[in-house]
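Input structure tokens:
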């Protein structure tokens, strides 16, 4: 299940079964992890599903979103508010270190939502 921006000021949700169904401008992604995947790590929990949540962030001059591609992969797209330096010579590049996405994996889909928001609040110094 994902929440994505489909117009400049409007968001909606979409359900899917593979990476290529994740639309551009995805702002939130909740995934039920299949048994045998890298995230599942071989844990045998036949009764309980495992969930992963991905929360792209806005931080400073950077904005991150998710999108799927034709190979069923999820891509993180990062945009900057920095002006282009094309055509300017001898200009030093400024490299920013920033957190662009938070992710968590748990067996409780309700708890995971609270946990990722708490993680974000803590890292931003809001609590």
């Amino acid at each position: 299940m994902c929440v994505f921006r489909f117009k400049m000021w409007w968001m909606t949700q979409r359900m899917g079964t593979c990476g290529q169904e994740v639309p551009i401008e995805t702002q939130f992604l909740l995934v039920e992890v299949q048994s045998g995947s890298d995230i599942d790590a071989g844990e045998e929990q036949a009764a309980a599903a495992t969930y992963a949540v991905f929360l792209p962030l806005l931080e400073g001059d950077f904005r991150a979103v998710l999108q799927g591609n034709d190979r069923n992969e999820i891509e993180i797209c990062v945009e900057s508010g920095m002006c282009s330096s094309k055509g300017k010579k001898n200009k030093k590049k400024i490299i920013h270190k920033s957190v662009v996405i938070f992710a968590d994996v748990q067996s409780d889909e309700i708890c995971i939502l609270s946990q990722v928001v708490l993680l974000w609040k803590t890292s931003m110094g809001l609590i």
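Residues 2-82+96-123 form one domain. The chain is about 10% helix and 40% strand.
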